[in-house]
Specification:
This protein is 16% helix and 44% strand. By secondary structure, it is α+β, with helices and mostly antiparallel strands.
């Protein structure tokens, strides 16, 4: 590529998650700029690639922005990890999963197991923690959302006191109402996490990737 050597290695946690089904990366060159990876995009002389097969890149504001799912998604879903999407609303732009747009802009969940909810023109998104994902795997219960003083709040075991709601962050969490206030508690989820899943997150941490 213009006399220069370009090298790209998929992250180790992605290699382990996909095994022999890992797709071949690609390289692209545009006006002297080169990049290698997955689902590469070009925009106004810029080129960038995602680091994972489920990542996505889109041009915006004269730049190319890329989004890759966190390592916990690959640890749970492996080669079946769905490709992320991007959504545009006016000047606002976001990539991820279950994206929703409102008058205030657009937001996406970071994982396919997350949820987004629109309430009073505002989008709220929630994603289960990496520990919870490793503990429950594909059987992770779906989170829920409640109204909370004009906006949405999402999680597990949600409880409401008058117009205020709160949710636990994990499926084994609990929320109770005391003296007109909602209190929530989450026990540690990593204690029940699957060791193979945690080891993959460890690989991601060594590479500086988001768990």
């Amino acid at each position: 590529m213009d006399g220069r050597a370009m090298c790209f290695d998929p992250p180790a946690y992605v290699v382990r998650a996909y095994g022999s089904a890992l797709p071949e990366p690609e390289c692209k060159t545009l006006e002297g700029e080169s990049a290698c990876g997955y689902n590469c995009a070009t925009y106004f002389g810029k080129v960038k690639c995602a680091r994972t097969p489920a990542g996505v890149c889109r041009g915006r504001g004269g730049e190319v922005e890329c989004f890759d799912p966190p390592a916990s998604v690959f640890a749970v879903l492996g080669r079946e990890t769905p490709k992320a999407e991007c959504r545009t609303q006016g000047m606002d732009f976001a990539c991820g999963y279950r994206c929703l747009a409102s008058s205030e802009g657009v937001k996406c969940a970071t994982t396919p197991l997350g949820i987004c909810k629109t309430e009073s023109g505002r989008v709220t998104c929630f994603d289960p923690s990496p520990g919870a994902m490793c503990a429950y795997g594909r059987s992770l219960p779906a989170p829920q959302c409640r109204s909370n003083e004009g906006s949405a709040i999402c999680g597990y075991s949600c409880a409401t006191a008058f117009s205020r709601s709160a949710c636990a962050s994990t499926p084994k969490g609990i929320c109770k109402v005391f003296d007109s206030q909602v209190y929530c508690f989450d026990p540690p989820s990593t204690l029940e996490a699957e060791t193979t899943c945690l080891s993959l997150l460890g690989l991601a941490a060594l590479e500086g990737a988001k768990p």
